[in-house]
Amino acid sequence: MQFDDDAPLDTSEVQDERGSRVPGGGATIGGGIVGLVVLVVGLFLGISPDHLGLSSGGDAPATSSSAGQVQQECRTGQDADTKDECRIVAVVNSVQDYWAQESGRHRIGYSKAPTVLFTGRTSTGCGAATSEVGPFYCPGDKRVYLDLGFFDELRTKFGAQGGPFAQAYVVAHEYGHHMQDIEGTLSAHRSGATGADSDSVKTELQADCYAGVWAHHATTVKDETTGRPLITSLTDADIRDGLDAAAAVGDDRIQQEFQGRVTPDTWTHGSAAQRQQWFQRGYRTGDMAQCDTFR
């Protein structure tokens, strides 16, 4: 995965709150092993804290301390080739450029959503959250939340190969949720039910498909500033890394690893095979109309 070295990065689309201090208590959820299993199965890659009853205590705005590294260090695509946080900026720029252009073709009004980088814990429009929640999109404030430490855990805890495009897949998945929010899908399918055929799983699989759609167009979507694609190269190996990451966070894989058995009735995101299948469908077709998991 390579970026245009000379292309400027728009850091306004990423809010760097790492090093900020959030007053008050962090998010809370059931304790012990049960709490861990619920967190891992229910939250990684997509669900906002309010879906699982995370506490809204301590939800005052963060106060700045050593935040803002992204704005200082991420200038061009060359930075995105070498630094994780700058790569996130570049992927956010590319994903949002694509959906803004695609939404125009479908006569859907697209509003940009910032990604918030944080460490430890943060306050959101969906309540307080900790890094243990994993990456998520909050419809309450139209933001994506991400602790970069998640990518290390994706490798060490979940056995993914990692790589730059594994990171890009995670980001693109969350912006798939933003598109669903704009389309009204999130509000229309928010029953809270679980299971292999639940709306929750269908919502997550559609976000995987939308991530694949963006990947299909990633090297052709034009940057708003330069008129050139920000991403210049995406290889088969990159796509394999994305598929590997999708499989690593499949409900069946996570359940087998953390509770020793697979219980499809409690699925919230879909199996490893399903997540790969829907990402591939989006990547192969490049057509969001092919991502109707609800049918």
Automatic annotation (TrEMBL):
Domain of life, source organism: Bacteria
Xref: InterPro entries: Uncharacterised_pept_Zn_put
Under the heading Pfam families, the entry gives:
Zn_peptidase
Which Gene Ontology cellular-component terms appear in the entry? membrane
* Compositionally biased tracts (Polar residues): 62-75
Q: Which SUPFAM superfamilies match?
A: Metalloproteases ('zincins'), catalytic domain
How is it placed in the membrane, per its record?
A: Single-pass membrane protein
Q: What is this protein called?
A: Zinc metallopeptidase
